[in-house]
Here is the input.
Amino acid sequence: MSANTERFARQPLSGGGTPAEVSRRWDRSLPELELGGCRTLYVVSPHPDDETLGFGASAATLQARGIDVRVVSVTDGEASLPGLSSPQRTMLARFRRTELDRATEVLGLAPSIRLGLPDGEVDAHLPALTDMLVELFETAPGTWCAATWSGDGQSHRSHPAEQRLG
Here is the structure.
């Protein structure tokens, strides 16, 4: 069992993330996305796990269809557990990076790109984040970006900052 599985078994999440009623109201009658012009897709996630939980199956499917899918992790997720000491946060960041490496490997994706911004403090680094993402996206025609759903602001304090870039 992974460390997170054990932790959630002991203390399940309650009330975290996007409220169920918001998800139920989501209009699922979207048109099919035409991906003919997409050669590279950057999946930008505030911290490790968002790309896998929110877009992992789609990323693997797109990669299998010939689109180069790259995960961009804005932070290392070191602030996901409140009250940790600095050494504990460093260990958690290392653990989360390892999880991300394994997830991208299992999904058949290239190694992730880590921007290394401080978790929970992305708002203070928006100009730097914008510059980093612009540099990535200017690589070639046919480069697309997928990011956290705009209605997911309740789940983590890094998500709203990332959504303002859109």
Q: What stands out?
A: The domain at 45-163 is CATH 3.40.50.10320 (Rossmann fold). The first strand starts at residue 40 and ends at 45. The chain has one domain: 45-163. The CA atoms of residues 62 and 69 lie 7 Å apart.
